[in-house]
Design a protein that fits this description.
Elements: E1 5-10, E2 13-18, H1 29-44, E3 50-55, E4 59-61, H2 66-70, H3 76-96, E5 101-105, E6 108-110, H4 112-119, E7 122-125, E8 130-132, H5 146-154, H6 156-165, E9 169-170, H7 171-176, E10 182-183, H8 189-201, H9 205-217, H10 223-239, H11 241-251
Parallel strand pairs: 2-3, 3-5, 4-6, 5-7, 6-8, 7-10
Antiparallel strand pairs: 1-2, 8-9
Helix pairs in contact: 1-3, 4-5, 5-6, 9-10
Length: about 260
């Protein structure tokens, strides 16, 4: 069986490549299962401080493999149900991972590939990058958390426009709408993620993990519950080595030197 997910590690950064370039990295059930399993492993790996997701070849990801879906027989609904279940597990792992996850969008990101980029914490693109939700043009509805993340990034009205008309979004428009964190030179998206992660690496990853969790959970909790969550995580962060170092450095009027939190 082909290795549909290719994993590389560079120091404490893991690079997860979607590896079906002949299919523009569209994912079948095997590929998305492997993606979810890989992300679970990386989330628990104490030696990994950040994760990059990119695609082999000339595309990031064309979404779910509709040829695979069609090959499953007459019950297309069952095939989509199985595919979405595994895809959603991967999306949950990204949103719950206490480490930065960066999409190095090296080409077309359509359908599930579009939703996958939205789920990542940061997105690096090039001038040739094209985003396209794709689902509604095929008579489907958006999955992979796309309808959750999109209105929070671009607003409800624009999110509905994207869903309704499915116009391709070029890098200029993506930047204007806040869908891009940084732009990179052609062929340099993965390399650019290392620059971004190196900046984060000098900061407190304890703080990043707490901030990511609080922002993600803010969509699902009452204000009072969220305040309690903030209080608990603030107290926790203050007890951790990076919290102690940050406060000590502030009082000593020097730059803090943070460490990678063990076990995060």
């Amino acid at each position: 069986m082909e290795n549909t997910i290719h994993l590389e590690e560079k120091e404490d950064i893991a690079i997860v490549y979607l590896n079906r370039p002949e299919a523009y990295n569209a994912f079948d059930l095997d590929m998305v299962q492997r993606l979810a399993e890989t992300l679970i492993t990386l989330s628990l790996d104490r030696n990994i401080a950040g994760v990059v997701i990119s695609g082999k070849g000339h595309a990031f990801c064309a979404g779910g493999d509709l040829r695979w879906v069609n090959s499953q027989g007459n019950d297309l609904s069952r095939a989509f149900h199985a595919l979405a279940a595994q895809f959603h597990q991967a999306i949950i792992e990204i949103r719950r991972m206490p480490k930065p996850v960066v999409a190095a969008v090296n080409g077309l990101a359509a359908g599930g590939g579009f939703s996958l980029t939205l789920a990542c914490d940061f997105r690096i693109m090039t001038t040739s990058t094209i985003l396209k939700q794709g689902y509604t043009s095929n008579g489907l509805s958006i999955d992979g958390g796309g309808t959750f993340m999109l209105p929070r990034l671009v607003g409800a009205a624009r999110a509905l426009e994207i869903a309704a008309f499915d116009r391709p979004i070029n890098s200029e428009k993506a930047a204007e709408w806040g869908l891009v964190t940084e732009m990179a030179d052609e062929g340099q998206t993965v390399e650019a993620t290392f620059d971004l992660l190196s900046k984060l690496r000098k900061r407190s990853l304890t703080s990043f993990a707490a901030s990511k969790k609080l922002i993600t959970d803010s969509f699902n909790t009452s204000f009072e519950t969220h305040l309690e969550n903030e209080r608990n995580l603030l107290s926790f962060a203050a007890s951790q080595p990076n919290g102690v170092e940050g406060l000590t450095a502030f009082l000593e009027k020097r730059p803090p030197v943070f460490e990678v939190p063990s076990g995060e």
